[in-house]
Amino acid sequence: MVDIATRVWNHRWKIDPIVRSLVDTDFYKLLMCQSVFRNKPDTQVTFSLINRSKSIRLAELIDEGELREQLDHIRSLSLTRGESTWLRGNMFYGKRQMFTPEFMEWFEALRLPPYHLEKRDGQYELTFEGKWPEVMLWEIPALAVLMELRGRAVLDHMGRFELQVLYARALTKLWEKIEHLRTIDGLRLADFGTRRRHSYLWQDKAVQALIEGLGNKFVGTSNCHIAMKRDIEAIGTNAHELPMVYAALADSDAELAQAPYQVMADWHEEHDGNLRIILPDTYGTPGFLERAPDWLAGWTGIRVDSGDPATGAETAIRWWHDRGEDPRDKLVIFSDGLDVDKIAELQAQFAGRVRVSFGWGTLLTNDFRGLTDGDALAPFSMVCKAVSANGRPTVKLSDNPEKAMGPEDQIARYKRVFGVGDQKRMEVVV
Amino acid sequence: MVDIATRVWNHRWKIDPIVRSLVDTDFYKLLMCQSVFRNKPDTQVTFSLINRSKSIRLAELIDEGELREQLDHIRSLSLTRGESTWLRGNMFYGKRQMFTPEFMEWFEALRLPPYHLEKRDGQYELTFEGKWPEVMLWEIPALAVLMELRGRAVLDHMGRFELQVLYARALTKLWEKIEHLRTIDGLRLADFGTRRRHSYLWQDKAVQALIEGLGNKFVGTSNCHIAMKRDIEAIGTNAHELPMVYAALADSDAELAQAPYQVMADWHEEHDGNLRIILPDTYGTPGFLERAPDWLAGWTGIRVDSGDPATGAETAIRWWHDRGEDPRDKLVIFSDGLDVDKIAELQAQFAGRVRVSFGWGTLLTNDFRGLTDGDALAPFSMVCKAVSANGRPTVKLSDNPEKAMGPEDQIARYKRVFGVGDQKRMEVVV
């Protein structure tokens, strides 16, 4: 029996929307949004798309009209009743009412603010300006739309069986990774792959594969919509945008030096347990830890998101030792450019010395490398970052100078203020 | 939207039938059936399942109740109006009304006769007795049911993603074969894989892959139901059961020696063009050709179905030369245990010297080798053959003694009558 009603319904879509929900975003975005909504609601911020992979000429691959349609569709979204119920009623990290009634009321009324789109030199200039808690929610859907539209441009030219075989190969590749991971004792791994995923459906499939293949070694997903749909844990804490904007708002070098700790202080007040995770690399991990107040050493763990991950973890372990904490009680979350071999290596190196966890991103949800001619579906390095706050440029130094951003004079100033010396350059794949 | 009606409908099936149509069978079965219906309608024949792969203990793998359910379901089938219309109205090999009104009326009224099933030594003894035109139609569905039930017994223990990955791997494997085949100039290839297919759906998928991947290098399928569904050519001519039964009916050695040519004479009267394909190996190819009447050299081509295929083709080419025919006008159809490398090799060796065509069977529709633990889904060598006719045992010698069958004294007699000497043993994989 052909289901005519479904067919008619499906054909009524004018476009095939890439992002269909405001909670199809990373959980930490909502946590940070609530924090910003409470602490810095009126800060004017600009987010901007940054394609680090210059050889991928997005404006030549993606039709501007289609991109606008997708972005316009996102602006038409608002929180559904079911999504609101899930956010209000769910237990996150063992805590109920993670989101306050004030925040939820604001979120329920929210529509995303306008975007600004231009083509330049084969790339899209895509920016979002407005109040921080509003524009910050553009980051994840904007990235997901661009990555998926670029994928669709390639898929459009493939035959029906070619498509089946493409996904068959991608699924096999994914499963072989999972078969490797399941052999790792004590593994704890979460999906962090929303922003640069191949597509929503593919991320959802990857999560289902992790559920079946890893059992309780899989601890959850950063994607709220998929966490809701698959009834699993939503995972995440905080990101670089907090210290970057706090730092940009500083009126003096002294305030600047304190800004990253002010972020942590605000967060400390709002959250405990697994949400107290330090992200130390925004202006260099060694200096950040060295100058950190003692109460920060009491936090649950640290997220290693740039530089050599083993070096980052060893730095953290030494720091906890120095501050009289037992590293074996501490959590280290690796989340930078991971794939199975690196995960196995880090687990072997650190299991037993600290509690280890992995946030597996793009190479979980978008490892289409080697599956098409000219590798046209390989993921690439694209971010969407806060580039200014109240008219001042933001700066990120990172533990890998390839990931640094900001005007040169400001980078120099930040390096001086945070005492950052030579850093090791590492290629950024995704 | 959930389609509740479809769901309810699907759940109403008491079993999941493996064979759902009387035309889910090989086209040559119907051609031969019409010939038998005309020439030997009352011959009493017994068909029997023969599992050449003794290590596969089918009676331990397949539940007897399930097997009976499937076979009983096949007995409930009759030709549908649409199937009858297709057989009556379609053009086969450029000819309309391939099937006579008398045959179609008989076929429309047909239900398959009873089966006899017993377990012995871990194997099933499955036999079909009755009038030749009726019991002969059991061969293909019986084999398909056994192969698919054995597969289901393995699949039942697999997780949802394991299943997805299994089919992803099988599809990738199939597509890589097709990508290899599409590079072969002048290739002409048909699907001959009904009897030992993984499943109906998988055979149908393989055919769709061939349509997309090979274009007009793919010339059709032996499966009538799939030919009808996909609107492509149904392919096939005749098989060993004709000479085997004709030979068993012979009342003297002299008649026996003539029996294979009598088959060809009856066929010659009924068919022309691409249907005049010699199958010479039943009692040894060299002797058959040597003693063949001259009119047989005028036939369109030859099918090489046992022994070393290159040797068989060279023998045929020499024979055509000797009989004053130009081999370049003749068709050689290779159909024994083919896979891509062998196809490429034979095409390279014979293209230009004869017209070459391939009937690709089990390693097209059931190459699940290497995809499961213990290779539990690998295809194996199982046939369903006429073992007696009017109370006399049948004999097959073949060009490969591994494929010979019949009582020993009769094999000796046939070897003497047909002048078959030493033969080369070749492993039978599928």
TrEMBL record, chains A, B:
**What does the record give as its pathway?**
Cofactor biosynthesis; NAD(+) biosynthesis; nicotinate D-ribonucleotide from nicotinate: step 1/1
| Pfam families noted in UniProt | NAPRTase (PF04095), NAPRTase_N (PF17767)
Q: Give the catalysed reaction(s), semicolon-separated.
A: 5-phospho-alpha-D-ribose 1-diphosphate + nicotinate + ATP + H2O = nicotinate beta-D-ribonucleotide + ADP + phosphate + diphosphate
Top-level taxon:
Bacteria
Q: How is it modified after translation?
A: Transiently phosphorylated on a His residue during the reaction cycle. Phosphorylation strongly increases the affinity for substrates and increases the rate of nicotinate D-ribonucleotide production. Dephosphorylation regenerates the low-affinity form of the enzyme, leading to product release.
Give an example GO molecular function. Answer: glycosyltransferase activity
Domain Nicotinate phosphoribosyltransferase N-terminal per the UniProt entry, residue ranges: 24-146
Q: Does the keyword Glycosyltransferase apply?
A: yes
**EC top class, as a word:** ligase
Q: Give its E.C. classification number.
A: 6.3.4.21
Which of UniProt's keywords are assigned here? Answer: Glycosyltransferase, Ligase, Phosphoprotein, Pyridine nucleotide biosynthesis, Transferase
Point out residues bearing the modification Phosphohistidine.
240
Task: List each copy of the Nicotinate/nicotinamide phosphoribosyltransferase domain by range.
Answer: 188-421
Role according to the record = Catalyzes the synthesis of beta-nicotinate D-ribonucleotide from nicotinate and 5-phospho-D-ribose 1-phosphate at the expense of ATP.
Q: What protein family is recorded?
A: Belongs to the NAPRTase family.
What HAMAP family does the annotation carry?
NAPRTase
Q: What is this protein called?
A: Nicotinate phosphoribosyltransferase
Q: Which gene encodes it?
A: pncB
